[in-house]
């Protein structure tokens, strides 16, 4: 298998883990989301630190932390994103979560146009209009704006904007993010264990039993592992291909919600999701064409 093939397999592996992650969070649905988020932060830090130590790159953290204001803002955005996703699974709204990750690529296009002055093509504009139509349909059908979907899509979108401004590798940057969040996570867990905070139940779950403790520790691997696979794939696979494979993530989340969790799938969902899928198909075709045109232009310039 060539490097591109290995990259595709790594990308599929990352998206499968992300897409099936609702099964993990449903397994610990009895653990308050704040406690889950705190453990996810701390055990991710442990895992990433071990990876960097094995690579002899722990020293890279010092240089990266010179950009701490941007990294801190990124850490806040990703923690909100993580919390919203954990909460959505625990309260039976995984369908909304999957919609958020379907919408995200289109939100990224809008942010690219606003922040980086990127040009919006005709077909991209049509895709965004279809996505907005889907949000309106869901809002009218449910009588409420799909806030979880919008929070997930926008926080991840702005997180991507900040990451684009940082010339730091993904593993180092995420390690810095969870490092800055670690003190807050430790304070929160200490408060839970001491009974100062009561997040829906007295005390904390971690330490009360081997199974719960082991599952909470596993959150670090489930967070760090897919990101490492993704960074491996991104260096070997065309961006358009990465974008298309990423849709495997919300598709699996959607299947978990409807098939396994038996969450309600209303008439509004039956209208909105085909709109989103059509928008993403249009967006993907346009992205492939743009990338093909860019490659041809690059080849022509080399030939000259």
Protein described:
With 304 residues, this protein is an all-alpha fold. It has one domain. 81% of the residues lie in helices and 0% in strands. It contains 12 helices and no strands. It has helices spanning 3-27, 33-55, 60-64, 68-90, 94-115, 122-142, 147-165, 170-194, 210-234, 239-246, 248-260, 267-303. Helix 1 (3-27) runs parallel beside helix 11 (248-260), helix 4 packs antiparallel against helix 7 and helix 4 crosses helix 8. The longest helix is centred in the last third of the chain and has 37 residues, at 267-303. The chain is globular and about 60 Å long.
Uncertain residue ranges: none
Content-based structural category: mainly alpha
Count of the domains: 1
The SSE order reads HHHHHHHHHHHH
Number of strands: 0
Give the overall average pLDDT.
85
Strand proportion, as a percent range, falls in under 5%
Structure annotation, total helices: 12
Short descriptors:
304 residues
Short description:
The protein is mainly alpha-helical.
Write the layout of secondary structure elements.
Elements: H1 3-27, H2 33-55, H3 60-64, H4 68-90, H5 94-115, H6 122-142, H7 147-165, H8 170-194, H9 210-234, H10 239-246, H11 248-260, H12 267-303
